[in-house]
Amino acid sequence: MMTLSIKNATKQFGGFTAVDDISLDVAEGQMHGFLGANGAGKTTTFRMALGLLTPTQGEVLWQGRRISYADSPDIGYLPEERGLYPKMKVQDQLVYLARLRRMDKKQAEQGAKDWLERFEVPHYANKKVEELSKGNQQKIQLIASLLHNPKLLILDEPFSGLDPVNVEMLKKAILDFQKQGATIVFSSHRMDHVEELCDDMSILDKGKLVVHGSIREVKRTFGKQNVRIHSDTDITALGELPGVEKFTAQRSGGVFRIADEAVGQHLLARALELGPVRQFALEEPSLEEIFIEKVGRAHV
Amino acid sequence: MYSFWIIFKQAFKTKAMTKSFMITTLVVVASFFLLANLPSIIESFNGNDNSQQTLQVVDETGQYTEALQAQLNQQGSSIQVDASALSEEQLRADVESGDRDAFLVLEGDNGITARYIAQSATESAQAAELENALQNLQTARVAEQLELEETELAQLFAPVGMEREALAESSKSQEELSQARGLVYILIMVIYIAVIYYPNMIAMEVANEKSSRVMEILISSVSPVKHMFAKIAGIGSLGILQMMIFALAGYLAIQSSGSDLTEGVFSVMGFSEVKFSTFFYAILFFLLGYFLYAVLAALLGSLVSRTEDVQQLMLPMMVLIIIASFISFSGISMPEAGYVTIASYIPFFAPLVMFLRVGLLDIPLWEPLLSIAIMLLTIGILGWFGARVYRGGVLMYGSSQSLKDIRRAIKLGNGK
Lengths: 300, 416
Fold this sequence. Notes:
Chain B: This is ABC transporter permease. The complex is a heterodimer. Chain A contains 9 helices and 14 strands. Chain A is of the alpha/beta class. Chain B folds into 2 domains: about 50-155, D-Maltodextrin-Binding Protein, domain 2 (3-Layer(aba) Sandwich); about 170-415, no CATH class. Chain B contains 17 helices and 4 strands. A 4-stranded mixed sheet of chain B has the order 2-1-3-4, sandwiched between helices. The two termini of chain B are about 30 Å apart. Classes of the chains: A alpha/beta, B mainly alpha. The interface of A and B includes residues 52 and 101 of A.
């Protein structure tokens, strides 16, 4: 069953089209990654999904109907612009926000305690939010979004501005939360995070959905591969061979982008002619390359 | 309803716990006690020196002092006079050096000529009492010289009997009016302060939640309309509580001062003939005025992105309240004026002006009821309109903060 379903959604602000005819399904229990440059329409899409904004055209359905405030207990949201009451104590704040989503007070208190411990910040429970570092505020913000055990969790740039240790901690928490059965949608402009966490992904560019599907499928249909050759001799000249779309020189060798797998074998043969080859690899394209290809081209 | 109560309680609790709220409450309560006890406090400070001091009189004829003392006693004055053994020059030197506050010189055989010499001319209360006493003394002496009968004297000084009678039915008798005036004045003042203070609190609160960006979480959890009204109700209840604390403190302060509500200063305020309906209307118009302006304030607060900009956008609203206060304060002396009557049906002026009219005039019941109905209708329309602006306004961030943003906010909220 499709839990979150965006159907031909378009959102215009005055004359500006922020989201242009997007259709997308997120299955139950899945983790879906939204990629897009700044201003691509990710936040607007999320706000439409949450019912904060009404689509100009099309609709966003959750379990077959439009999201309303009756669904509030089932939905968690981490906005891109982080926001908490600066003068309220962490524990009070978490309990208040969870109770707004109709969580029981006792459960909320216990849950807040457990999550603070899990994020190794139990001593912040009675501190005001404004006294916390940005990274720690972000942990609190994430707890606030999932404390009430939502079935649908929408995270807008959950990892921005965090150090690597904390990114790992939050990633693990989000993965665990997904394992408990939650459907998670998150946006990022870090491809590696999406690649690591998601089943499905989509790329938004200027309000349009340019790529959509499971990560494996996206990579396969991209139809391009990378050939990595490390050699003692200079192989720059091989970049000029037919079938090579792009050559990126590295310290000892380089990476060739090819569309046809046969070209890879040909490249290896030519490289061996020039000298000994230390390493040869046929690699899948990274999401980053796909992103730049899809979005970058549109920019030209 | 569950989330409504949670927001309600939160708004109430966090505001009640702020230092500024507690300090304001304490300061006002303390000032009540101070004011109520002011007369006795002042007395305790200068109890011993000048009021008890005997006023030295340089009496050249030697016949006035005793008569003056008798006259003063008759008037109920506490001034004690004594024929001085010192000369005028010596007394003058004393006053100049500050050892003595004042002295009196009495001269003349037929008509009394008096000179009151003091450090400053501001100590006129004593001088006025003396003048009054001397005048009576003079009159009595002249009457004696003219050999007037007691009854003739009484005729001469009989006051003119003038009574003011108001023919308009709604008008209260002059006596009633002057009594009601003081109380109504104070209650209008209270309503005026309340409809500025509490709605401002709401606007600041909304702007705070917006600028700290917690708003987006809030309105993704609870509908903006519910959020807005819960907040208004929460802070409104806080306002009622604070007003009740003030009322209780005021009552206790007066009690503690040992004076009776019907005596002295308080008689001017009309507490002696407290009408229950006046207080009832005061509470009613306080609530209506509060809700009216609170919805407006929430609407305006939702348009700004930074708390610094709140005051700027609140200005039009403040102007409305100030106009209302002008009308009602000027209307205290002429509550039947045409512009007062008209203003009492204009929703933004009604909370103050209609209260003035029901407080001072005996107007038929339908008049306040009509005004209340107009206000309720306006609150309803504003609430509906405000909710739409609020919905979009809280998502809107930008540098411009003008009333034009209302249109943008409605568009955003509507999804068009």
